[in-house]
């Protein structure tokens, strides 16, 4: 049996303790009462700045900033990262996946703790040309996730390229830094132009993003060394993922932010489990890389044509399996559950028709007293397992298929 390191016990114990005491002391509510009024005032006072920027309204700018927003959105990274894994740049792919999960968790936690509004529309014109943007508009404002994610991921990409290519030329480094600044600036400007964020949201995203990037650059090598080792990785990360779900703050009103976190939490878990199992087979430093004689473009396109349908099939199967298994397990353990959207028979309206006044709470339910929930949304578990299966297939099942097909 694998041994559990002391730091793992301390970290997991610390998070579990935080969940209990923060709930008992209502830490989220107290922080919100201190920050929300000030941030809300800044959003309102920033309305004239948004209106001045929107005076330059033009169809071309609408399309440009919408396209830029899509390119740095979570759905884009979810589609792009598998291709990065299959291109042979495995270390970059797993680091950016875990960094994305880290950014997503930090950003969405702050959103739901502060619960600050987005710019009022009207008078601000809000452009939501895609379904993803319409869902984003349902979240709270501070910080701008697009700005935060762009700072972190583009900054780390620059760091990786300079380190991997061993570029020491100052001019090249400055050009790279200037390019990153330009992209971040356009993203931030675009979020204000589209009416999705106020100036304070963008500044908050910029500052928090730089802080997260600085932290990540100081620990990423340790995290990567841990993930590719065989030191209780899968068990530790599974427990960590579950604890992070409970550690997530309760928003003032329900938003899609927790759903986004749950999905990417599952992605990170699936990547870690898959990498830990297959690192020496498919993800070591000597694997064929794109644009080399070992992996031609046509072979890479073949990987994409085979891999994308495969992971979508695994996602569908994982969801169907989770929808069948989780309610049964919850019933056996005595945990009352509901379903917001995935299982109609467990919807709130359906559950209200059932009499459960004499039902005794199960032992596990009693252990979760600090959550202040009468029932647990099984959709969270379904979503977590669905995206865990999806990510696992990206780094485990699909590379094995490539191997068998000679790709």
Automatic annotation (TrEMBL):
Q: Where in the cell is it found?
A: Endoplasmic reticulum membrane
Keyword check for S-adenosyl-L-methionine: no
Q: How does it sit in the membrane?
A: Multi-pass membrane protein
A Gene Ontology term for the protein's cellular component? endoplasmic reticulum membrane
Among SUPFAM superfamilies, the record links this protein to: Acid phosphatase/Vanadium-dependent haloperoxidase (SSF48317)
Keyword annotations for this protein? Answer: Endoplasmic reticulum, Hydrolase, Membrane, Transmembrane, Transmembrane helix
Q: Which GO terms describe its molecular function?
A: sphingosine-1-phosphate phosphatase activity
Q: Where are the transmembrane segments?
A: 7-25, 64-86, 174-193, 199-219, 231-248, 295-314
- UniProt domain Phosphatidic acid phosphatase type 2/haloperoxidase: residue ranges: 93-217
Q: Which InterPro entries match?
A: PAP2/HPO, PAP2/HPO_sf
Pfam family for this entry, one? PAP2
The entry's family comment says: Belongs to the type 2 lipid phosphate phosphatase family.
Protein name in UniProt: Lipid phosphate phosphatase delta
């Amino acid at each position: 049996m694998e041994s559990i390191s002391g730091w793992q016990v301390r970290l997991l114990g610390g998070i579990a303790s935080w969940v209990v005491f923060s709930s008992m002391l209502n830490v989220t509510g107290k922080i919100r009462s201190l920050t929300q009024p000030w941030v809300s005032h800044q959003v309102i006072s920033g309305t004239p700045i948004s209106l001045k920027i929107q005076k330059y309204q033009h169809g071309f700018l609408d399309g440009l900033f919408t396209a830029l927003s899509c390119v740095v959105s979570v759905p884009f990274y979810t589609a792009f990262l598998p291709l990065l894994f299959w291109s042979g740049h495995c270390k970059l792919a797993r680091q950016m996946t875990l960094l994305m999960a880290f950014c997503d968790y930090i950003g969405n936690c702050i959103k739901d703790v502060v619960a600050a509004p987005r710019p009022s529309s009207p008078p601000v014109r809000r452009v939501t040309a895609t379904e993803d943007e319409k869902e984003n508009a349902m979240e709270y404002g501070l910080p701008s996730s697009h700005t935060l994610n762009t700072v972190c991921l583009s900054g780390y990409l620059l760091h990786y390229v300079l380190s991997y290519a061993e570029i020491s030329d100052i001019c090249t480094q400055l050009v790279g830094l200037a390019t990153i600044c330009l992209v971040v600036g356009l993203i931030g400007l675009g979020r204000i132009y589209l009416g999705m964020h106020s100036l304070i949201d963008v500044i908050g995203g910029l500052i928090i993003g730089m802080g997260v990037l600085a932290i990540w650059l100081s620990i990423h090598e340790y995290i990567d060394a841990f993930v590719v080792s065989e030191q209780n990785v899968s068990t530790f990360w599974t427990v960590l993922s579950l604890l992070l779900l409970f550690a997530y703050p309760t928003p003032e009103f329900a938003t899609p932010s927790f759903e986004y976190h749950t999905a990417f939490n599952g992605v990170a878990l699936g990547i870690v489990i898959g990498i830990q199992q297959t690192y020496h087979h498919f993800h070591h430093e000597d694997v064929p890389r794109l644009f080399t004689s070992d992996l031609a473009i046509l072979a890479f396109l073949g990987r994409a044509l085979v891999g994308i349908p495969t992971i979508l099939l695994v996602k569908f199967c994982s969801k169907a399996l989770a929808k069948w298994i989780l309610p049964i397990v919850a019933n056996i353990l005595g945990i009352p559950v509901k379903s917001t959207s995935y299982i109609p028979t467990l919807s709130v309206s359906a559950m209200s028709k059932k009499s459960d006044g004499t039902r005794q709470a199960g032992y596990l339910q009693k252990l979760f007293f600090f959550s202040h929930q009468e029932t647990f949304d099984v959709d969270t578990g379904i979503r977590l397992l669905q995206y865990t299966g999806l990510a696992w297939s990206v780094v485990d099942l699909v590379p094995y298929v490539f191997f068998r097909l000679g790709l």
